[in-house]
Amino acid sequence: xxxxxxxxxxxPGYDQQGILDVAVAAFNEHGYDATSxxxxxxxxxxxxxxxxxxxxxxxxxxxxxxxxxxxGLEAVVDDPLPLTDGGRAPDAVARLEHVLRxxxxxxxxxxxxxxxxxxxxxNTDVERRALTRRRAFDRRITALVGEAQAEGSLRSDIDxxxxxxxxxxxxxxxxxxxxxxxxxxxxxxxxxxxxxxxxGLRRR
Length: 204
Fold this sequence. Notes:
Organism: Microbacterium sufflavum
Protein name: TetR/AcrR family transcriptional regulator
Order of helices and strands: HHHHHHHHHHH
Oligomer: single chain
CATH topology of the largest domain: Tetracycline Repressor, domain 2
Keywords: DNA-binding, Transcription, Transcription regulation
Structural class: mainly alpha
Mean pLDDT: 90
């Protein structure tokens, strides 16, 4: 018996990822607190026990969704750029551009999960853990901006934390209007973000 068949165990139509996708859509549409397991079961056309077969609780579903978004963003910062032609490590502004482009790609590829992440307010332990990870990510971006300012690549008259917040405020706003399959794909959208965010910050 295949792994997929084992996962479904006679409950055709939804594996764990399928349930997660529908749940995230419901959380975004109605709010996490207002979406009960009963409502999810009705939306999925499954019994509550079928959902509990895949997830321990509603909080477990939320945790999986938020982890997917956060892990994607964290991986972008952790992903190293190759050495330059001269064998040197890339400068901070190149790494910052890499992170901005990567963040846009994560947002586009995991739009529902990132949307959910941006809406959490710390009302549960799961949300508080997610917010702690998000703040750690923000601090890494601020430090990277500070490095780029210190090396003279970016103007230094704007506080690094403000630059990070404004830049990711722009990126995060994409969830409010971006629709997959529109005129701009992830690559073009990343080009636009980098142009707007960095062209005004580079030292002339």
